[in-house]
Specification:
Organism: Magallana gigas
InterPro entries: Znf_C3HC4_RING-type (IPR018957), Znf_RING (IPR001841), Znf_RING/FYVE/PHD (IPR013083)
Number of helices: 6
Oligomer: single chain
Transmembrane segments: 7-31, 43-64
Pfam family, one: zf-C3HC4
Domain RING-type: 103-144
Length: 178
């Protein structure tokens, strides 16, 4: 359970208000000449003990996450470096020299080389390379999808065979062994 400063302050204010209201009622009762029996004193001490216990638990639970060692925080913020420029290049498809609209990363339409990711979002090449290097992953800054390699794929054998089947095979010359 991680509490923010406002939430901690709200809990403590609510608990303090309830405690003060209880004490105020006790003081008014005593000032008006009321007496307390043994059972009243036991009840009052029980309520005060429970209120103080709840306040202590609230403070301990909300302050515990902030007492983590700095080493744990540094390890969680560490990003793995990108191995090579070739890995980034495989994720990009070069489109043209200019971007028709503002680059979502740098917010300009300068004359930089424009590339497209596998999710079809367009960025300046220099901007998206820097984004990949700083983030340590290959996710699109716009939609957060993992960017796939954009290498040009050669058709596989089955698609070539099906294309040949669609054509008239009789038009191909027969090769005879001589």
């Amino acid at each position: 359970m991680e509490c923010s400063g406002k939430l901690l302050c709200s809990f403590l204010c609510l608990e303090l208000a309830a405690l003060l209201m209880f004490v105020f009622c006790l003081i008014l009762h005593a000032l008006n000449g009321g007496t307390f029996s043994v059972s009243d004193v036991v009840f009052i001490s029980s309520v005060l003990t429970i209120c103080l216990f709840i306040m202590t638990i609230t403070i301990c639970l909300c302050l515990a996450p902030t007492c983590r060692p700095a080493v744990t925080l540094k390890l969680s913020n560490r990003r793995k470096p990108i191995d090579s420029e070739d890995v980034i290049t495989r994720k990009l498809t070069v489109l043209h020299d200019t971007l028709d609209h503002d680059c979502p990363i740098c917010l300009t339409t300068t004359q930089n080389l424009t590339v497209q990711l596998s999710c079809k979002h367009e960025y300046h090449e220099s901007c998206i390379r820097e984004w990949f290097e700083r983030s340590g992953n290959f996710r699109c800054p716009g939609c957060r999808q993992e960017c796939l390699d954009q290498t040009k794929r050669t058709p596989d054998v089955s698609s070539v065979v099906q294309t040949i089947k669609k054509d008239d095979i009789s038009t191909f010359p027969l090769i005879e062994n001589v």
